[in-house]
Automatic annotation (TrEMBL):
Organism: Amycolatopsis oliviviridis
The protein's name: Uncharacterized protein
Superkingdom as given in the UniProt entry: Bacteria
Length: 280
């Protein structure tokens, strides 16, 4: 799997750059500068768009000025579809490439109302799936629409982290509905771990990747999400053939991370990729 000088296909575009969100909270000007450095580095193939909130688009206009090369961005809409018109108008005036819209589902909004609100949107959409009884109906409704799902896998409180059973069920529901998904929040490391500062049980992004494969192949997704042995997970990833690897990434498209270099370092530490000579 190691391919010197470039990112293996299994990890291509895996890390959406969420530097401005907690816990990183990078100032937007610094985040833009760092993102440009990331996409100019040898590991550029690992990096997805810069994720920004809808409310930050005014500041982004000031930061970008008359930039010539469009900045790839994903815009989060925590207020739901009501923010769509304003976001699309703002983005149209910016030197950016809109890679995705990440849209929350307001309390009380059902699948039919949501799909009606998204009917005129041409940009890729990730719908943030609530952790309630609407999960399966929403995923079922998204099936075949071209829209995707977004799952929260953590946050600033312990209760914001779904346990293995809940996350495995969410992945299973998305895969069965044929809806690709991304993950955000709480995936600070490659492997399942206990945060030493908070005591929170945190999912690993490689666990989530292999849980997707487990659902696709009839394995035990819950057990994979609980696995903490890096050698075990790395071995399973190396054993994926091209077809299974492609199927995994078709299902699990990316995850948001406030640090691009941390997952890069951890993947290298597990022997899953290697920097070219002279690079760190």
């Amino acid at each position: 799997m190691v391919d010197v000088g470039r990112i293996p296909a299994l990890f291509a575009g895996l890390c959406d750059d969420a530097a401005v969100f907690p816990p990183g909270l990078a100032p937007l000007p610094a985040a833009v500068t760092a993102h440009d450095e990331h996409v100019s580095a040898w590991y550029a193939g690992l990096v997805g768009p810069l994720v920004v909130a809808a409310t930050a688009l005014g500041e982004l206009a000031e930061v970008l000025g008359d930039r010539e090369v469009p900045l790839p961005v994903a815009v989060t809409l925590p207020g739901g579809p009501a923010q769509l018109d304003g976001v699309l108008e703002a983005v149209a005036e910016l030197p950016v490439k809109l890679d995705a819209l990440e849209i929350a589902v307001p309390d009380g909004m059902g699948p039919d109302e949501l799909l009606a609100a998204l009917s005129g949107v041409t940009a890729p959409v990730f719908v943030e799936i609530p952790r309630d009884e609407r999960r399966v109906p929403l995923l079922t409704a998204l099936s075949g629409t071209g829209h995707r799902a977004k799952f929260r896998t953590g946050g600033v409180r312990a209760d914001l982290y779904p346990d293995e059973a809940e996350l495995a069920a969410a992945v299973r529901a998305a895969v069965e509905a044929g809806v690709p998904f991304k993950a955000t929040a709480g995936l600070h490391h490659a492997l399942r771990n206990t945060d030493p500062d908070t005591g929170f049980e945190q999912h690993g992004f490689l666990n989530l990747m292999l849980a997707t494969d487990a659902v696709l192949t009839g394995g035990d997704a819950e057990a994979v999400l609980a696995e903490r042995d890096g050698a075990v997970l790395a071995g399973r990833l190396r054993a994926l053939g091209p077809e299974r690897a492609a199927a995994v990434r078709a299902g699990f498209t990316s995850f948001g991370t406030c640090s691009i270099t941390d997952p890069l370092t951890e993947l290298a530490g597990l022997g899953l990729l290697e920097a070219p000579r002279g690079e760190a």
